[in-house]
Amino acid sequence: YPSGHLAVTVVREGSRLACVVQEDKRRNAEIRAVFSSSGRGACYYPSGAVWINVSSQGGQCLDRAGRRVRRWMWPSSVASPGPRVPLRPIFLSLNRHVGVRILGQDRVTVSFLAMGQQAKFNVGTKVQVSGGQLPPPARLLGEDELVLLALRVRILRLCDRLRQRLRFPSSERDRTEPAYLTSQSAKLLRLCATPDSSDKLRSWVRAIVNA
């Protein structure tokens, strides 16, 4: 952002890619959108409520109260019971600098514009599926998103350590970690403690956060 705060990050973990959009804040920046190469993605209102939720089957748009106002199926997915609802183009403005455009499963774009310069990230992907239902409106985080959040916490922790070293280069005393990082780490580990999370995922996230 013009403020110097991080706006868009693209992370690679093995063969997977994820794109995350953060709010224009120095500390405790909320995530406004996440898209992964597995075909999952979500955009969030400033309050944290889900705005758009997409998967390999289709997607849905929710209002601020969590009520579904639109839903659709991708042409490549198997139709769910009832008539197929095609996607009408969606244009979202996450803030004054970042927007999201959804024209199709493989035509999803995150656009960043500031000080006359523009950057576009194609975050759409073509994923074939054999069946399934649309994602629920609840804010459920997938494996890609949990790993991405763990990497974000790790990066923030490293940045904080570097900032402390630059401010106090002669001091060898370990300093207390900021409370917001400790809170985010604990919350992330709790999200991985659900029955639906695998032992491998929990170990993976714990190793990233504590590295």
UniProtKB/TrEMBL annotation:
Domain FAM194 C-terminal: 1-173
A Pfam match: FAM194
Organism: Rhynochetos jubatus
Protein's gene: Erich6
UniProt xrefs under PANTHER family: GLUTAMATE RICH 6 (PTHR23093:SF18), SIMILAR TO CHROMOSOME 3 OPEN READING FRAME 20 (PTHR23093)
Protein name (Swiss-Prot/TrEMBL): ERIP6 protein
